[in-house]
Amino acid sequence: MLADVVPLYPLYALLFADTGLSDAEISALFAIWSVVGIVVEVPTGALADRFSRKSALVAGGVLQAAGYALWTATPGFTAFAAGFVLWGLGGSLVSGSVEALLYDGLVATGAQEHFTRIYGQVGAFELIAQIPAAVAATVLFPLGGYELVGWASVATCLTAAFVASRVPEPPRTESGEEDGEASYLAALRTGVVEAVRSPAVRGAVVAVALLTSLDGIEEYFPLLARDWHVPVDAIPLAVVAIPLAGAAGSALAGRLDRLRPLSLALVLLAGVLVFALAGLLGVPLGLVLVGLFYAAYRAVLVVANARLQERIDGTARATVTSVAGLGTDLAGLLLYAAWAVAGLPAALGLALVVVAVLPFGLRGRSAAGART
Q: Of 34, 147, 160, 236, which is least surrounded by CB within 10 A?
C-alpha cells in the first residue's frame, strides 16, 4: 500500500542514532509513540465508527506527514518526540478503521468468509511496499542524506491520504435520533462494552493486543543489522528480506485459518526460537533467520486478527479493534522498556510469554464458526 512506501522507514532509527541519541533515548521515543496511542486509540476508533472510517484514514496520512516534516526540518529529541505524537495520533485514526472498512465491505457483498485470505493479502502488500521504500532510501540517501529522504516521505504520506479519500465506504445505518456527541458516546460505549464483557471477544482482543505488540521489534531491525556488522549504507536493502518474508507469511495465512490455537502458538514458538538462534550468531546472515521468524509471526497475527473480527457482533467494529490497539500500546511500552534494559534477549523473553498466552486468548468458537 502507498502509505507504506515511506523511505524513512528503514532509516529513522538510524536518524535518531546519528543525531546523537542513545539506545535508551530511542526507546523513550518509541515509548512516547505508545503512550499517545494509549490515550487516543479507543476514542479515535469510536470517531471512525460514528462518522467516517475513510476520513479517519485520510486524516491519519496527513498527521503522519506532519510528523515527518518536523523530524526533517528540526532534527533533535524534542522534534522527534513531537513527530511521534503526530504519528501516534494519525496511526490511532487508522488503527481499526482498515479492518472495519474491509470486513464491513465484505459483509455488504456476502463475502466475509474470505476476510482472512484478503486481510492476509493486504498485509502482504503493506510489507512488500517496504521494498520500493528501501530502494528509494538507498537511492535518495547518498544524494541528499536524511533531509531528502524525509521530505520524500512527507510527499508519500500526503499522496497516500489523497488515495484514501477515493476509497469507497459501505453505507451504515444511523438512528438519526441522537446528536453527534451522543451518537459518538454511544459508539464508544458499545465498542468498549463488547470488548470487555463478551468472553470470546475479550480473549481475542487480548491475543491480538499481545501479538501485535511484538511488531515493535521491527523498529530495531536496522539497529540489529548494524550490530551484526552490516554497513550502514547497505542496511536498507539488507533488511528488506525481512518484510518480504513477512509478506509471504501474511499471504499464506489463509492456510492456517483452521488451525487450533495451540497449533498457532507452536508456529509462533518455532519462529521465536529461530530468532534467538540469529541473535546468538550475531552475523549478517542472521537476518535470514529473522525473516523466518517474521514470516511465522505475521501469519499467526493475520489469523488472530481474523478471529477477532469474526467474533465482533455489534456495529462498533473499529472501536473494538481499537481496544485491541490500546492493549498493543500498553504491551509495547513493556517491550520498549525491556529492549532498553537488556536488548534482544529481553524482547524474545516477552515473545515467549505471548506464545504461552495465545492458546487461551483464542480458544472457543467464533461467530463465523471457525474452529478454534
A: 147
State how far the Cα of 65 lies from the Cα of 33, in Å rounded to an integer: 15
Query: What does the alpha-carbon distance between residue 32 and residue 315 come to, in Å, rounded to a whole number?
Result: 31
Q: Transcribe 90-128 into DSSP letters.
A: HHHHHTTHHHHHHHHHHHHTT-GGGHHHHHHHHHHHHHH
CA 332 to chain centroid, in Å, comes to 11
Stated pTM of the model: 0.80
193, pLDDT greater than 80: yes
Neighbours of 24 (CB within 10 A): 12
What is the C-alpha separation between 150 and 128, in angstroms, rounded? 20
The answer to whether residues 7 and 140 touch, using CB atoms and an 8 Å cutoff, is: yes
Give the integer Cα–Cα distance in Å for 94 and 85. 14
The pLDDT tens digits for 278-332 are: 999 999 999 999 999 999 999 999 999 999 999 988 778 888 998 998 898 889 8
**What is the rounded (10 degree) CA torsion for 6, 7, 10, 14?**
-120
SS3 159: helix
Taking the alpha carbons at both ends of the chain, their separation in whole angstroms is 31
- In Å, how far are 14, 294, 330 from 279, measured between CA atoms? 20, 14, 26
Q: Which domains does the chain have, with CATH numbers?
A: 2-361 (1.20.1250.20)
Query: What amino acid occupies position 65?
Result: A
In whole angstroms, what is the distance from residue 61 CA to residue 29 CA?
20
Nearest 10 degrees: CA dihedral of 209, 214, 219, 223? 160
Q: 167: which 3 cell numbers?
A: 476509497
Averaging pLDDT over each range in 1-10, 96-105, 116-125, 303-312, which range is the top one?
Answer: 303-312
